[in-house]
Amino acid sequence: MPNDSLQRWVEEILRGDARAVARAISAVENREPHARELLRRLFPHTGRAVIIGVTGSPGTGKSTLVDGLAAVLRRRGHTVGILAVDPSSPFSGGAILGDRVRMQTHATDPGTYIRSMATRGALGGLSAGALDAAVVLDASGKEYILIETVGVGQDEVDVMRIADVTLVLLVPGMGDDVQAFKAGIMEIADIFVLNKADLDGADRVEREIRALLSLASPDEAGQTPPSPPIVRTVATRQQGIEELLEAVLRFLEVSRNQGKLKQRQVEHWRQRIVELLRERLLDRVMGGVLQNSDLNRYAAAVASRETDPYSVTDQILEQANRHQYGVSGVVPDDKKDDTNREPAALDHVGIAVAALAEAVELYERALGLQVTGYEVIPQEKTRVAMLPVGDTRIELMEATEPDSPIARFLAKRGPGLHHISLRVPNLEAAIARLEQNGVKLVKQTKRQGDVVSQVGAGGHRYVFVHPSSAGGVLLELVEGTGNRE
Question: CB 3.0 to 4.6 Å from 453: which of 106, 228, 461, 475, for a disulfide?
Answer without folding.
Answer: 461
